[in-house]
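Can you give me the bound-state structure? Components:
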Amino acid sequence: MNLSYWEIKTWFSEVDFTIIGSGIVGLSAALYLKKRFSNAKILVLEKGFLPQGASTKNAGFACFGSLSEIIDDLNTHTEDDVLNLIKKRVNGLHLLRETLGDEAINYQNLGGYELFTKNNEALYDLCQEKQQYINKLLKPIFKTDVFSFKGNNFNFKNIQPKYAFNKFEGQIDTGKMMEALLQKASSLGIKIINNCTVEAFIEDRNSVKVKTNLVEFSTSKLLIATNGFASGLINEPVKPARAQVLITKPIDDLHIKGTFHLDRGYYYFRNINNRILFGGGRNLDFRAEETTKFEQTELIQNKLEELLSTTILPDINFEIDNRWSGIMGVGTQKKAIVKPISNNVFCGIRLGGMGVAIGSSVGKDLADLIA
Ligand SMILES: Cc1cc2nc3c(=O)[nH]c(=O)nc-3n(C[C@H](O)[C@H](O)[C@H](O)COP(=O)(O)OP(=O)(O)OC[C@H]3O[C@@H](n4cnc5c(N)ncnc54)[C@H](O)[C@@H]3O)c2cc1C
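Here's the bound-state model for the whole set.
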Protein backbone atom coordinates (compact mmCIF):
# COMPACT_ATOMS: atom_id res chain seq x y z
CA MET A 1 0.00 0.00 0.00
CA ASN A 2 1.31 3.44 -0.90
CA LEU A 3 0.85 5.92 1.92
CA SER A 4 -0.17 9.50 1.17
CA TYR A 5 2.04 12.50 1.77
CA TRP A 6 -0.20 13.35 4.77
CA GLU A 7 -0.04 9.90 6.28
CA ILE A 8 3.73 9.78 6.02
CA LYS A 9 4.19 13.33 7.35
CA THR A 10 1.74 13.02 10.26
CA TRP A 11 2.54 9.54 11.51
CA PHE A 12 5.78 8.18 10.10
CA SER A 13 8.32 10.98 9.68
CA GLU A 14 10.64 12.43 12.29
CA VAL A 15 9.58 9.81 14.80
CA ASP A 16 11.54 10.17 18.02
CA PHE A 17 10.43 7.06 19.89
CA THR A 18 8.72 3.94 18.60
CA ILE A 19 7.43 1.45 21.11
CA ILE A 20 6.46 -2.06 20.07
CA GLY A 21 3.56 -3.37 22.13
CA SER A 22 0.64 -1.54 23.76
CA GLY A 23 0.48 -3.58 26.96
CA ILE A 24 1.03 -2.07 30.42
CA VAL A 25 4.76 -1.76 29.81
CA GLY A 26 4.60 -0.20 26.34
CA LEU A 27 1.94 2.34 27.32
CA SER A 28 3.66 3.19 30.62
CA ALA A 29 6.97 3.70 28.81
CA ALA A 30 5.20 6.00 26.34
CA LEU A 31 3.70 8.05 29.20
CA TYR A 32 7.06 8.49 30.95
CA LEU A 33 8.81 9.39 27.71
CA LYS A 34 6.16 12.04 27.09
CA LYS A 35 6.72 13.40 30.60
CA ARG A 36 10.44 13.75 29.95
CA PHE A 37 10.31 14.83 26.29
CA SER A 38 7.07 16.78 25.93
CA ASN A 39 7.60 17.65 22.25
CA ALA A 40 8.65 14.18 21.14
CA LYS A 41 6.73 12.28 18.48
CA ILE A 42 5.93 8.91 20.05
CA LEU A 43 4.44 5.96 18.16
CA VAL A 44 3.13 2.78 19.76
CA LEU A 45 2.73 -0.11 17.34
CA GLU A 46 0.40 -2.94 18.35
CA LYS A 47 -0.20 -6.12 16.38
CA GLY A 48 -3.67 -6.73 17.84
CA PHE A 49 -6.91 -4.83 17.25
CA LEU A 50 -6.73 -4.38 21.02
CA PRO A 51 -3.61 -4.92 23.13
CA GLN A 52 -3.16 -8.65 22.65
CA GLY A 53 -0.79 -10.32 25.08
CA ALA A 54 -1.42 -10.40 28.82
CA SER A 55 -2.43 -6.89 29.83
CA THR A 56 -6.08 -7.20 28.75
CA LYS A 57 -6.34 -10.88 29.69
CA ASN A 58 -5.10 -11.06 33.28
CA ALA A 59 -6.83 -11.69 36.60
CA GLY A 60 -6.25 -8.21 38.03
CA PHE A 61 -4.61 -9.27 41.29
CA ALA A 62 -2.79 -6.31 42.83
CA CYS A 63 -0.49 -8.66 44.73
CA PHE A 64 3.14 -9.01 45.71
CA GLY A 65 3.46 -12.71 46.55
CA SER A 66 1.56 -15.29 48.59
CA LEU A 67 3.14 -16.85 51.68
CA SER A 68 4.12 -20.09 49.89
CA GLU A 69 5.35 -18.13 46.85
CA ILE A 70 7.71 -16.07 49.02
CA ILE A 71 8.93 -19.19 50.87
CA ASP A 72 9.48 -20.92 47.53
CA ASP A 73 11.32 -17.91 46.06
CA LEU A 74 13.70 -18.03 49.04
CA ASN A 75 14.80 -21.51 47.88
CA THR A 76 16.14 -20.12 44.62
CA HIS A 77 16.89 -16.44 45.36
CA THR A 78 18.72 -14.67 48.21
CA GLU A 79 16.75 -12.84 50.94
CA ASP A 80 17.88 -9.54 49.40
CA ASP A 81 16.66 -10.55 45.94
CA VAL A 82 13.29 -11.65 47.32
CA LEU A 83 12.87 -8.43 49.32
CA ASN A 84 13.86 -6.31 46.34
CA LEU A 85 11.30 -8.04 44.15
CA ILE A 86 8.56 -7.52 46.74
CA LYS A 87 9.56 -3.85 47.03
CA LYS A 88 9.39 -3.54 43.24
CA ARG A 89 5.89 -5.02 43.23
CA VAL A 90 4.70 -2.76 46.05
CA ASN A 91 6.23 0.35 44.47
CA GLY A 92 4.93 -0.61 41.03
CA LEU A 93 1.40 -0.88 42.40
CA HIS A 94 1.73 2.55 44.03
CA LEU A 95 2.90 3.98 40.74
CA LEU A 96 0.00 2.41 38.82
CA ARG A 97 -2.54 3.74 41.34
CA GLU A 98 -0.93 7.17 41.40
CA THR A 99 -0.78 7.40 37.59
CA LEU A 100 -4.37 6.38 36.88
CA GLY A 101 -6.20 6.87 40.20
CA ASP A 102 -8.01 4.19 42.23
CA GLU A 103 -11.41 5.04 40.79
CA ALA A 104 -10.30 4.69 37.18
CA ILE A 105 -8.94 1.18 37.78
CA ASN A 106 -11.52 0.25 40.43
CA TYR A 107 -8.83 -0.64 42.95
CA GLN A 108 -10.27 -2.44 45.98
CA ASN A 109 -8.31 -3.60 48.98
CA LEU A 110 -10.35 -6.73 49.75
CA GLY A 111 -7.37 -8.76 50.95
CA GLY A 112 -5.73 -11.87 49.56
CA TYR A 113 -6.02 -15.48 50.72
CA GLU A 114 -3.92 -18.57 50.16
CA LEU A 115 -5.76 -21.87 50.27
CA PHE A 116 -3.93 -25.14 50.90
CA THR A 117 -5.31 -28.32 49.36
CA LYS A 118 -6.29 -31.22 51.58
CA ASN A 119 -3.58 -33.45 50.13
CA ASN A 120 -0.78 -30.95 50.74
CA GLU A 121 -0.53 -30.88 54.50
CA ALA A 122 3.25 -30.52 54.28
CA LEU A 123 2.97 -27.11 52.57
CA TYR A 124 0.29 -26.02 55.04
CA ASP A 125 2.56 -26.94 57.96
CA LEU A 126 5.58 -25.27 56.36
CA CYS A 127 3.68 -22.01 55.79
CA GLN A 128 2.43 -21.94 59.38
CA GLU A 129 5.93 -22.65 60.62
CA LYS A 130 7.51 -19.89 58.48
CA GLN A 131 4.78 -17.27 58.96
CA GLN A 132 6.59 -15.36 61.73
CA TYR A 133 9.93 -15.46 59.90
CA ILE A 134 8.36 -14.06 56.70
CA ASN A 135 6.47 -11.38 58.64
CA LYS A 136 9.75 -10.33 60.25
CA LEU A 137 11.50 -10.31 56.88
CA LEU A 138 8.79 -8.02 55.42
CA LYS A 139 8.62 -5.65 58.42
CA PRO A 140 10.98 -3.06 56.90
CA ILE A 141 8.54 -2.66 53.96
CA PHE A 142 5.13 -2.91 55.66
CA LYS A 143 5.99 -1.88 59.26
CA THR A 144 3.50 -4.45 60.54
CA ASP A 145 2.72 -8.18 60.13
CA VAL A 146 1.55 -9.07 56.63
CA PHE A 147 0.39 -12.68 56.95
CA SER A 148 -2.05 -14.18 59.45
CA PHE A 149 -4.11 -17.39 59.41
CA LYS A 150 -7.91 -17.31 59.23
CA GLY A 151 -10.65 -19.91 59.49
CA ASN A 152 -12.49 -21.11 56.37
CA ASN A 153 -15.42 -18.67 56.54
CA PHE A 154 -16.07 -18.77 52.78
CA ASN A 155 -16.91 -22.48 53.15
CA PHE A 156 -14.54 -23.83 50.54
CA LYS A 157 -14.22 -27.64 50.44
CA ASN A 158 -11.27 -30.03 50.22
CA ILE A 159 -8.86 -27.56 51.74
CA GLN A 160 -6.97 -27.29 55.02
CA PRO A 161 -8.96 -25.72 57.89
CA LYS A 162 -7.28 -22.31 57.74
CA TYR A 163 -5.99 -20.08 55.01
CA ALA A 164 -3.18 -17.55 55.01
CA PHE A 165 -4.53 -14.01 54.83
CA ASN A 166 -2.72 -10.96 53.48
CA LYS A 167 -4.48 -7.71 54.37
CA PHE A 168 -2.41 -5.67 51.90
CA GLU A 169 -3.55 -7.49 48.77
CA GLY A 170 -6.01 -5.79 46.44
CA GLN A 171 -7.69 -6.19 43.06
CA ILE A 172 -8.32 -4.00 40.06
CA ASP A 173 -10.58 -4.02 37.01
CA THR A 174 -8.13 -4.98 34.29
CA GLY A 175 -10.29 -3.64 31.44
CA LYS A 176 -10.67 -0.28 33.14
CA MET A 177 -6.94 -0.06 33.80
CA MET A 178 -6.09 -0.65 30.15
CA GLU A 179 -8.80 1.71 28.95
CA ALA A 180 -7.45 4.42 31.29
CA LEU A 181 -3.88 3.86 30.09
CA LEU A 182 -4.93 4.03 26.42
CA GLN A 183 -6.99 7.17 27.02
CA LYS A 184 -4.21 8.87 28.92
CA ALA A 185 -1.68 8.08 26.20
CA SER A 186 -4.01 9.33 23.43
CA SER A 187 -4.86 12.50 25.34
CA LEU A 188 -1.16 13.34 25.52
CA GLY A 189 -0.77 12.99 21.76
CA ILE A 190 0.89 9.57 21.76
CA LYS A 191 -0.03 7.85 18.51
CA ILE A 192 -1.20 4.26 18.88
CA ILE A 193 -1.48 2.21 15.71
CA ASN A 194 -3.28 -1.13 15.93
CA ASN A 195 -3.13 -4.14 13.62
CA CYS A 196 0.46 -3.20 12.95
CA THR A 197 2.98 -6.02 13.43
CA VAL A 198 6.66 -5.20 13.57
CA GLU A 199 8.43 -7.84 11.49
CA ALA A 200 12.04 -6.67 11.71
CA PHE A 201 14.29 -3.72 12.46
CA ILE A 202 17.73 -2.66 11.24
CA GLU A 203 19.88 -0.18 13.10
CA ASP A 204 21.76 2.62 11.32
CA ARG A 205 24.22 4.86 13.12
CA ASN A 206 21.65 7.36 14.40
CA SER A 207 18.32 5.72 13.79
CA VAL A 208 16.49 2.43 13.45
CA LYS A 209 14.59 1.29 10.33
CA VAL A 210 11.38 -0.45 11.34
CA LYS A 211 9.66 -2.88 8.99
CA THR A 212 6.00 -3.63 9.73
CA ASN A 213 3.25 -5.47 7.87
CA LEU A 214 1.89 -2.05 6.81
CA VAL A 215 4.78 0.36 6.38
CA GLU A 216 8.53 0.91 6.73
CA PHE A 217 9.89 4.01 8.45
CA SER A 218 12.74 5.34 10.59
CA THR A 219 12.74 6.16 14.28
CA SER A 220 15.44 7.66 16.50
CA LYS A 221 14.93 5.10 19.26
CA LEU A 222 13.10 1.78 19.37
CA LEU A 223 11.68 0.33 22.60
CA ILE A 224 10.57 -3.30 22.64
CA ALA A 225 7.75 -4.12 25.08
CA THR A 226 6.51 -7.38 23.60
CA ASN A 227 6.98 -9.59 26.69
CA GLY A 228 6.01 -13.20 25.79
CA PHE A 229 6.45 -12.49 22.07
CA ALA A 230 9.94 -11.00 22.42
CA SER A 231 11.79 -13.91 20.84
CA GLY A 232 10.23 -12.98 17.48
CA LEU A 233 12.42 -9.86 17.42
CA ILE A 234 15.32 -10.22 19.88
CA ASN A 235 17.36 -12.95 21.45
CA GLU A 236 16.81 -12.74 25.22
CA PRO A 237 16.05 -15.49 27.76
CA VAL A 238 12.27 -15.16 27.78
CA LYS A 239 9.71 -17.78 26.80
CA PRO A 240 5.98 -17.55 26.20
CA ALA A 241 3.74 -19.04 28.88
CA ARG A 242 0.05 -19.29 28.19
CA ALA A 243 -2.40 -18.88 31.06
CA GLN A 244 -6.02 -20.01 30.71
CA VAL A 245 -8.98 -18.42 32.45
CA LEU A 246 -12.73 -18.81 32.75
CA ILE A 247 -15.46 -16.70 34.29
CA THR A 248 -18.86 -17.71 35.66
CA LYS A 249 -22.15 -16.00 34.97
CA PRO A 250 -23.31 -13.72 37.82
CA ILE A 251 -24.14 -15.69 40.98
CA ASP A 252 -26.90 -14.42 43.32
CA ASP A 253 -25.55 -13.18 46.68
CA LEU A 254 -22.02 -14.32 45.94
CA HIS A 255 -20.36 -14.40 49.36
CA ILE A 256 -16.76 -14.76 48.15
CA LYS A 257 -14.80 -11.51 48.10
CA GLY A 258 -11.07 -11.08 47.63
CA THR A 259 -8.22 -12.58 45.67
CA PHE A 260 -7.39 -16.24 46.24
CA HIS A 261 -4.32 -18.35 45.53
CA LEU A 262 -4.79 -22.12 45.53
CA ASP A 263 -2.36 -25.05 45.36
CA ARG A 264 0.97 -23.14 45.48
CA GLY A 265 -0.46 -20.39 43.26
CA TYR A 266 -0.97 -22.73 40.31
CA TYR A 267 -4.63 -21.69 40.51
CA TYR A 268 -6.06 -18.26 41.30
CA PHE A 269 -9.58 -16.85 41.57
CA ARG A 270 -11.37 -13.68 42.58
CA ASN A 271 -14.78 -12.10 42.70
CA ILE A 272 -15.74 -9.59 40.00
CA ASN A 273 -19.26 -8.22 39.53
CA ASN A 274 -20.84 -11.19 41.38
CA ARG A 275 -18.90 -13.65 39.25
CA ILE A 276 -15.90 -15.84 39.93
CA LEU A 277 -12.95 -15.39 37.58
CA PHE A 278 -10.75 -18.48 37.80
CA GLY A 279 -7.45 -19.27 36.10
CA GLY A 280 -4.40 -21.46 36.24
CA GLY A 281 -3.49 -25.09 35.66
CA ARG A 282 -0.34 -24.50 33.60
CA ASN A 283 1.36 -27.09 35.79
CA LEU A 284 -0.87 -29.79 34.24
CA ASP A 285 1.13 -29.49 31.01
CA PHE A 286 3.89 -26.85 31.10
CA ARG A 287 5.16 -27.95 27.67
CA ALA A 288 1.86 -27.45 25.86
CA GLU A 289 1.39 -24.06 27.54
CA GLU A 290 4.76 -22.79 26.32
CA THR A 291 3.11 -21.21 23.30
CA THR A 292 1.94 -17.89 21.88
CA LYS A 293 -1.32 -19.43 20.58
CA PHE A 294 -4.44 -17.96 22.17
CA GLU A 295 -6.33 -21.21 22.70
CA GLN A 296 -7.89 -23.21 25.51
CA THR A 297 -7.33 -26.92 26.17
CA GLU A 298 -9.85 -29.46 27.45
CA LEU A 299 -7.34 -30.71 30.01
CA ILE A 300 -7.03 -27.36 31.78
CA GLN A 301 -10.57 -26.10 31.29
CA ASN A 302 -12.01 -29.37 32.67
CA LYS A 303 -9.74 -29.12 35.70
CA LEU A 304 -10.82 -25.52 36.32
CA GLU A 305 -14.48 -26.56 36.19
CA GLU A 306 -13.84 -29.53 38.46
CA LEU A 307 -12.14 -27.34 41.08
CA LEU A 308 -14.97 -24.83 40.87
CA SER A 309 -17.57 -27.46 41.68
CA THR A 310 -15.57 -29.48 44.23
CA THR A 311 -13.62 -26.76 46.06
CA ILE A 312 -14.63 -23.17 45.34
CA LEU A 313 -18.39 -23.23 44.75
CA PRO A 314 -19.29 -26.71 46.09
CA ASP A 315 -22.89 -25.97 47.09
CA ILE A 316 -23.72 -23.37 44.47
CA ASN A 317 -25.18 -23.71 41.00
CA PHE A 318 -23.04 -21.87 38.50
CA GLU A 319 -22.66 -21.60 34.76
CA ILE A 320 -19.54 -20.72 32.79
CA ASP A 321 -19.98 -17.54 30.76
CA ASN A 322 -16.67 -17.19 28.96
CA ARG A 323 -13.18 -18.67 28.59
CA TRP A 324 -9.95 -17.15 27.28
CA SER A 325 -6.18 -17.28 27.47
CA GLY A 326 -3.34 -14.77 27.61
CA ILE A 327 0.38 -15.01 26.95
CA MET A 328 2.95 -14.15 29.61
CA GLY A 329 6.73 -13.90 29.25
CA VAL A 330 8.71 -16.04 31.72
CA GLY A 331 12.25 -17.23 32.38
CA THR A 332 14.28 -19.08 34.98
CA GLN A 333 14.83 -15.86 36.95
CA LYS A 334 11.80 -14.02 38.37
CA LYS A 335 13.14 -10.70 37.19
CA ALA A 336 12.18 -8.43 34.31
CA ILE A 337 14.78 -7.76 31.62
CA VAL A 338 15.09 -3.99 31.20
CA LYS A 339 18.18 -3.04 29.22
CA PRO A 340 19.66 -1.53 26.08
CA ILE A 341 20.01 -4.02 23.22
CA SER A 342 22.21 -1.61 21.25
CA ASN A 343 22.72 2.17 20.99
CA ASN A 344 19.19 2.91 19.84
CA VAL A 345 17.21 -0.20 20.77
CA PHE A 346 15.96 -1.03 24.29
CA CYS A 347 13.74 -3.68 25.84
CA GLY A 348 11.48 -4.14 28.88
CA ILE A 349 10.24 -7.72 28.93
CA ARG A 350 9.78 -10.97 31.01
CA LEU A 351 7.20 -9.83 33.57
CA GLY A 352 5.96 -13.31 34.46
CA GLY A 353 2.69 -13.31 36.41
CA MET A 354 3.55 -9.98 38.05
CA GLY A 355 2.87 -7.39 35.35
CA VAL A 356 -0.12 -5.69 36.99
CA ALA A 357 2.22 -4.99 39.90
CA ILE A 358 5.49 -4.22 38.17
CA GLY A 359 4.31 -3.17 34.68
CA SER A 360 4.20 0.57 35.43
CA SER A 361 7.65 0.66 36.97
CA VAL A 362 9.14 -1.56 34.26
CA GLY A 363 7.68 0.91 31.72
CA LYS A 364 9.21 3.81 33.63
CA ASP A 365 12.59 2.06 33.94
CA LEU A 366 12.49 1.33 30.21
CA ALA A 367 11.80 4.99 29.42
CA ASP A 368 14.58 6.03 31.81
CA LEU A 369 17.12 4.06 29.75
CA ILE A 370 16.89 6.78 27.12
CA ALA A 371 19.64 9.33 27.82
C1 LIG B 1 -4.34 -15.07 32.43
C2 LIG B 1 -3.34 -14.14 33.07
C3 LIG B 1 -3.52 -13.75 34.39
C4 LIG B 1 -2.62 -12.85 34.98
N1 LIG B 1 -2.90 -12.39 36.21
C5 LIG B 1 -2.09 -11.44 36.76
C6 LIG B 1 -2.43 -10.87 38.00
O1 LIG B 1 -3.46 -11.16 38.57
N2 LIG B 1 -1.56 -9.96 38.55
C7 LIG B 1 -0.40 -9.59 37.91
O2 LIG B 1 0.36 -8.80 38.47
N3 LIG B 1 -0.09 -10.10 36.70
C8 LIG B 1 -0.92 -11.00 36.11
N4 LIG B 1 -0.62 -11.50 34.88
C9 LIG B 1 0.59 -11.04 34.20
C10 LIG B 1 0.42 -9.66 33.56
O3 LIG B 1 -0.80 -9.58 32.89
C11 LIG B 1 1.60 -9.41 32.59
O4 LIG B 1 2.81 -9.57 33.28
C12 LIG B 1 1.55 -8.02 31.98
O5 LIG B 1 0.31 -7.75 31.41
C13 LIG B 1 2.65 -7.89 30.93
O6 LIG B 1 2.52 -6.65 30.31
P1 LIG B 1 3.41 -6.32 29.04
O7 LIG B 1 3.06 -4.96 28.59
O8 LIG B 1 4.84 -6.62 29.34
O9 LIG B 1 3.02 -7.43 27.98
P2 LIG B 1 1.70 -7.61 27.10
O10 LIG B 1 0.50 -7.16 27.80
O11 LIG B 1 1.72 -9.02 26.61
O12 LIG B 1 1.95 -6.62 25.90
C14 LIG B 1 2.80 -6.92 24.82
C15 LIG B 1 2.11 -6.41 23.58
O13 LIG B 1 3.01 -6.51 22.47
C16 LIG B 1 2.24 -6.81 21.32
N5 LIG B 1 3.16 -7.35 20.33
C17 LIG B 1 3.88 -8.50 20.44
N6 LIG B 1 4.67 -8.67 19.35
C18 LIG B 1 4.44 -7.61 18.53
C19 LIG B 1 4.98 -7.20 17.27
N7 LIG B 1 5.90 -7.93 16.62
N8 LIG B 1 4.51 -6.06 16.70
C20 LIG B 1 3.57 -5.30 17.35
N9 LIG B 1 3.05 -5.64 18.56
C21 LIG B 1 3.50 -6.77 19.16
C22 LIG B 1 1.22 -7.81 21.83
O14 LIG B 1 0.11 -7.91 20.97
C23 LIG B 1 0.87 -7.24 23.21
O15 LIG B 1 -0.25 -6.39 23.18
C24 LIG B 1 -1.48 -12.40 34.26
C25 LIG B 1 -1.30 -12.82 32.93
C26 LIG B 1 -2.22 -13.67 32.34
C27 LIG B 1 -2.00 -14.09 30.91
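A couple of observations. Residues 52 and 107 are 23 Å apart (CA to CA). The chain has a mean pLDDT of 96.
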